[in-house]
Amino acid sequence: MKLAARVGQVTPSLTLTVTAKALAMKAEGIDVCGFSAGEPDFETPAHIKAAAQQALDEGKTRYGPAAGEPRLREAIARKLQHDNQLNYTAENVIVTNGGKHSLYNMMMALIEPGDEVIIPVPYWVSYPEMVKLAGGTPVFVQTTAATGYKITPAQLRQAITPQTKLFVMNSPSNPTGIVYTAAEIIALAEVVVEQDILVVSDEIYEKILYEGAEHLSIGAVSHKLFTRTLVSNGFAKAYSMTGWRVGYLAGAVELIKACSTIQGHSTSNVCTFAQYGAIAALSESQDCVERMRLAFSQRREVMLERINAIPGLSCVKPSGAFYLFVDISKTGLTSLEFSNSLLESQQVAVIPGIAFGADDHIRFSYATDMTTIEKGMDRLEKFMRSLK
Ligand code: PLP
After folding, report:
1. Across residues 306-332, what is the average pLDDT?
2. CA neighbours within 13 Å on the CB side: how many for 213?
3. CA 238 to CA 247: how far, in whole Å?
4. What's the Cα-to-Cα distance from 52 to each of 43, 85, 249, 283, rounded to whole Å?
5. Where are the CATH 3.90.1150.10 domain residues in the chain?
6. Residue 161 or 7, more confident
C-alpha cells in the first residue's frame, strides 16, 4: 500500500511508545517503576465525574455544536478573563478533543507550505510533527541548562525570517518544568510585536506552579499582544482528566471559526457529556487543583534531591509542571541507550530526551506515588553505579 507522503515526515510519539512498553511489562507481572507517563495519577475529582454522570442521565448523549457546548464556551471565556486577564467571549473559544487537538486544529487552520514556526528546544514532542503535518517548517532554537532552558529575546529575533508565521511558547514547560517570569515574557512579547508574528501559548500546566512562581499569559501583556496571541489549554493536567479528552483554543473569531469548520469535518463535537464534566471543573471549587499541586510539590522535592545527589546526573530545579529533565551527558550514552538500558536492567521507565530534541537528557515524570519514587530512585542509583 502506498501511504501518503505526509506520513513519512512524522515520527510516532516516543512518549506514548515508551509508556505502552512499560504498561505491557507491568501486565506481564514485572515490577516496573513508571516515570514516563505525562498524566496525573489521581482520580478525576468526584464532583466532575458526578456532573458528567448527571449529563448522561439527562440524555446529553447527542451530537452537539462543533465548536462546543455554549455553556462550556462561556465558562472557558470567563475563566480566561478571570484567571488570565484575556478579554475573550464565548465566540473566541473552541472546545477540542484535548489540548493536543486544539494545537493541531490551529496549525491546520494557520500553517501552510512555506510558513516557518519557531519552536524552542527542548520542546513538547508533538509541536514539530504538527507543523510538518500542516506542511510548514519547524525552526528550532536551542536552549541550554545554563539559560534555564529559556529562549532569549535575542534568540527569538535572530530566528525570525520573512517566512515566520508563529512562535510556540510553553510555560510551564513539558519537558523541563521551567516557568518564564513576567519580565521574560514581556521581553519576548516586544519581539513578537516588533516583528509582527503570531504566538501560540500552550498553557496546559498553568495551574501546576511551585514556590511562588506565577503564570503570565503572554496575550495579557498588551492589546497588541492580545491580537497576535492564541491560547491553548485543557482539563487534562489541572483536573486529572487526561482520558476525557477536553481542551480548548482561544483566539481571533476568524481563526476559531476556521478551526470549527475543520473540526466539523474531522471529529464533529467533543464528547457531549464529557463537556458537562468540564463545566463543573471550571465552575465549582478549585480545592482539588490545589490538593494535587501540593502532592506534586512534595514529590518534586524528594525526587530532585535524590537525582542531584547521584554522581553523573544533574537537573535544573523546575518551577512548574510535573517533570524533571535530567542531564545525562556525563554518562556518554544517548538518551535511547540510557532509557532502554534502565528499563531492561532496573525496570525503570523514563522518556528519552531525543523525543524532545535533547539527546543528552531524559525526562522523569513525578506524577506517581512516593513509594514508586523512592524505589525508582534506589534503582536509578544502582543503575548509575553499574555504568562505572
Ligand atoms: N501541551 C503539552 C505541553 C502537553 O504536555 C500535553 C500533554 O502531554 C498537551 C499539550 C496535550 O494535552 P491533552 O491533549 O491531554 O489535553
Report:
1. 97
2. 24
3. 11
4. 14, 29, 22, 14
5. 5-44+287-386
6. 161
Per-chain mean pLDDT for the chain: 96
In angstroms, the CA 101 to CA 130 distance is: 10
% of the chain surpassing 70 pLDDT: 100
The alpha carbon of 338 and the centre of ligand 1 are apart by a number of angstroms equal to: 25
At the second CATH level, the architecture of 5-44+287-386 is: Alpha-Beta Complex (3.90)
* C-alpha span between 183 and 50 (Å, rounded): 41
**C-beta of 177 in contact with ligand 1 (< 6 A):** no
Amino acid 350: pLDDT: 96
Would you list the DSSP string of 307-369? Answer: HHTSTT-EEPPPSBTTEEEEE-GGGT--HHHHHHHHHHHH-EE-EEGGGGT-TTEEEEE--S-
Angle CA 307–311–314, to nearest 5: 50
Which segments of the chain belong to CATH 3.40.640.10? 46-283
Ligand 1 pocket member 174 (CB < 6 A): yes
The answer to whether the CB of 69 falls within 8 A of the CB of 275 is yes
Q: Is the CB of 206 under 6 A from ligand 1?
A: no
HEC string of 29-63 equals: CCCCEECCCCCCCCCCCHHHHHHHHHHHHCCCCCC
Q: What is the mean pLDDT of residues 67-90?
A: 98
In angstroms, the CA 110 to CA 45 distance is 35
- Ligand 1 atom closest to 202 (CA): 1
Top pLDDT among 13 and 137 is at 137
For 46-283, CATH gives 3.40.640.10
Ligand 1 site-directed mutation target among 18, 174, 241, most atoms within 8 Å of CB: 174
The predicted model gives 106-121 an average pLDDT of 98
Least confident of 18-32, 43-57, 110-124, 183-197: 18-32
